[in-house]
Amino acid sequence: MGAWGYKALESDEGLDVVAFLREYMEQHKESNQLTLSEIVQAMKQQGFFGKTLEDIDFFYDMSALALAELYSQYLNTGTIYGQESKDRQIQWVVDESSLTFILRYLQDIRDEVPDQHGSREIVELWQESKSWPEWQSNLDYLIQTVEQAINRLPQ
Fold first, then answer.
1. What is the distance between the alpha carbons of residues 51 and 57, in angstroms, rounded to a whole number?
2. What is the DSSP letter of 131?
3. Tell me: the pLDDT tens digits for 116-131?
4. Residue 34 main-chain phi, psi, to 5 deg
5. Residues 56-99: tens digit of each pLDDT
6. Residues 6+ away with beta carbon under 8 Å from 47
C-alpha cells in the first residue's frame, strides 16, 4: 500500500480513482453533470469494483473510499478534486442506488466483513498503523456523509 496519509486520496490507489475520474470527465466534457451511477458502472467495467459486493479486495475497498472522499469533497467545496473550471461548473448527480452501493462498501469495511481468507485486508493494514484512529474516524465520517446524502434524496 503506497500511502502518505490515512485518507484514500492520500494513496496510490486513491490517485488511480482520481485519474480515472479526470479521464471520465474529459470524455464527457460536453456535459455539466457527473452522474454517480454512470461513474460506478464505468468503474466496475474498468476493474475498480468486483462483480458483486461479495468480491472483496483491497483495491475495491480503496476505490469505494476514494469515491466517497471525492463526493464528500464535492459536497464541501463544490469542486471535484480541485477541478476548478472557470468556463463550467460541474454538478454531481446522485441516486439512491449508487449511494447505497458505496455505503454498503463502507459499512462492510467498518464491519470487517471478511474475504475468502477470513479477513479484510484494508482493516488489517490500518489496524497495524499509528494512524488507525484517524483512519477509523475518516471512515465513520464518510459513512455518515453518504447516509445523510441518501436521506436528503427526494422520496
1. 11
2. T
3. 888 899 999 999 999 9
4. -110, 125
5. 999 999 999 999 999 999 999 888 776 655 456 788 899 999 99
6. none
CA 18, chain centre distance (Å): 10
| Residue whose grid cell is 459536497 | 75
Cell 467545496 sits at which residue?
77
d(CA 10, CA 135): 11
pTM over the 0.90 mark: yes
Q: Which residues contact 82 (CB under 8 A, 6 or more apart)?
A: none
Q: Under a CB-based contact definition with an 8 Å cutoff, are residues 13 and 61 in contact? A: no
**How distant, in Å, are the alpha carbons of 21, 83, 142 from that of 78?**
16, 9, 17
Query: Under a CB-based contact definition with an 8 Å cutoff, are residues 108 and 53 in contact?
Result: yes
As a whole number, the mean pLDDT across the chain is 91
Percentage of the chain modeled with pLDDT above 90: 72
The SS3 call for residue 33 is: strand
Contact between 12 and 70 under an 8 Å Cβ cutoff? The reply is no
| C-alpha to C-alpha distance for 99 and 76, rounded to whole angstroms | 17
* HSE, side-chain direction, 13 A CA sphere, residue 62: 25
The 3-state DSSP class for residue 91 equals strand
Give which of 32, 29, 30, 28 is closest to 41, Cα–Cα: 28
